[in-house]
Design brief:
- This protein has ten helices and nine strands.
- It is of the alpha/beta class and 279 residues long.
- A six-stranded parallel beta sheet has the order 1-4-3-2-5-6, with helices on both faces. Strands 7-8-9 form a three-stranded antiparallel beta sheet.
- Helix 9 packs antiparallel against helix 10.
- The structure holds adenosine monophosphate (AMP).
- The site of adenosine monophosphate has 17 residues, from helix 2 and strand 5.
Length: 279
């Protein structure tokens, strides 16, 4: 495994690497969720690149950019064990050199849900992912369904810009009790960890109601709100049932619909989602 801090170095290493080439973009502090993407990429491609970059442009001014957890030594070891070929771990100045002015926006999709409570977040995501796609030029890029809106935005961007790569969505990895793995879970104390269960429990309740025949969107959304409300310390941002691609609220829910939920526990923003009709 080789580690590259510079774009030019990575590109020269990739020029002699066999295809297909996979990219797994991450912000590091790797957990089983990230590793599931890496293993899938390893199984489907000849060359696997993992990027580790805490991207400042996707954090708001009052968000956790400086305190976002980092552990490069551990990440390096985990990538090596998972059979990664190249780590790309640039400095901020490598990705945003002086004079950098270009941004990528995926209109409408970027403004809904997470975008409404984190203005500019998805502009930062789309911009850095576009840069990574052009730097690595992968055949496939692997993203988690955990960040469902992000997955839809990146898929849309790849299509709209004719980027000629496959965006592969991978299922959410969870703790045994249902909590979705997230690097931000380290911020939670035991009480917060308990409160965070409100997310997955609300999604499960909506799935159960859908399974029992409920098709009214608002009824399913109210149900998620009520379940989340029962978890003291969990402050709900939104709980919605949406079209899986446009992320708009539909009048009639169907088996393709997606339930999205987000909220705060002790100031930590947590998100989760699920297919309303699990397969
Ligand atoms: P992050 O480091 O949080 O930016 O995440 C990097 C990638 O890992 C993104 O595509 C995430 O959606 C994905 N990811 C994060 N948590 C999970 C999880 N629990 N299960 C599956 N994928 C995940």
């Amino acid at each position: 495994m080789k580690e590259h801090p510079r774009v030019a170095e990575l590109r020269s290493a990739l020029s002699s690497s066999p295809g297909p080439v996979a990219l797994v973009p991450t912000m590091g502090y790797l957990h089983e969720g990230h590793l599931s993407l890496i293993r899938r990429a390893r199984g489907e491609n000849r060359t696997v690149v993992v990027s580790i970059f805490v991207n400042p442009s996707q954090f708001g001014p009052n968000e956790d950019f400086t305190r976002y957890p980092r552990d490069m030594d551990r990440d390096r070891r985990l990538c090596d064990e998972a059979g990664v070929d190249h780590i790309f771990a640039p400095e901020v100045s490598e990705m945003y050199p002086p004079g950098d002015r270009t941004i990528v926006e995926v209109t409408e999709l970027q403004d809904r849900w997470e975008g409404a409570s984190r203005p500019g977040h998805f502009r930062g995501v789309a911009t850095v992912v576009a840069k990574l796609f052009r730097i690595v030029r992968p055949d496939r890029a692997y993203f988690g369904e955990k960040d469902y809106q992000q997955l839809q935005i990146v898929t849309r961007m790849a299509t709209d810009l004719f980027l000629d790569l496959e965006v592969v969505g991978c299922p959410t990895v969870r703790e045994p009790d249902g909590l979705a793995l997230s690097s931000r879970n380290v911020y939670l104390d035991p009480a917060g960890r308990q409160a965070a269960l409100g997310l997955s429990r609300a999604l499960q309740a909506a799935q159960a109601d859908f399974g029992a025949g409920e098709r009214r969107r608002t009824a399913l959304e109210r149900r998620m709100e009520r379940v989340a409300h029962d978890y003291s310390g969990f402050e709900l941002d939104y709980a919605v049932v949406v079209d899986p691609h446009t992320l708009e609220q539909l009048q009639e829910v169907n088996a393709e619909s997606r339930a999205l939920i987000a909220g705060w526990v002790s100031g930590v923003k947590l998100i989760d989602n699920a297919a309303i009709a699990p397969v």
